[in-house]
Amino acid sequence: MFDKNLLKNLKNEKEKWDKVHEEKKERKIKFETDSGIPIKNLYTPLDVKSNYLENIGFPGNTPYTRGVYPNMYRGRLWTMRLFSGHGSF
Fold it and tell me: Residue ranges per domain, the chain?
C-alpha cells in the first residue's frame, strides 16, 4: 500500500519530531486502554496504514488535525472552557 520511500520519510520525520518534543513532560501515570493495553504517545502509518503525512500530520503541527499540543493531555489535564461559567443556567 505504501512505497518504501514514503515509509522511510515518515520514519525520519518521526525521529525529528521525537527529538524536538523530547523535553515535553508527561504526567506520571500509565496510559493504557480499559483492557490494559499500553497506549503509545504517537501512532503513524508505521503502526497503521493510512495517508498520514498528507491528511493527518503530527500533533502540535499544522494542520492540527491531531491537536495543538505535541503531547496533548499527557502533559496537561483536559480543560472544558466551554462549560466553565458561560452558561445561562
Answer: 1-89
For residue 44, the tally of other CB atoms under 10 A from its CB is 19
* Nearest-angstrom CA–CA distance, 71 and 50: 21
Query: What gap in Å lies between CA 10 and CA 44, rounded to an integer?
Result: 8
Q: DSSP string spanning 6-75?
A: HHHHHHHHHHHHHHHTTT----SS--B-TT--B--S---TTTS-S-HHHHT--TTSTT-TT-SSTTGGGT
How confident is the model over 67-80, as a mean pLDDT?
A: 76
The position carrying cell 506520571 is: 28
pTM more than 0.70 = no
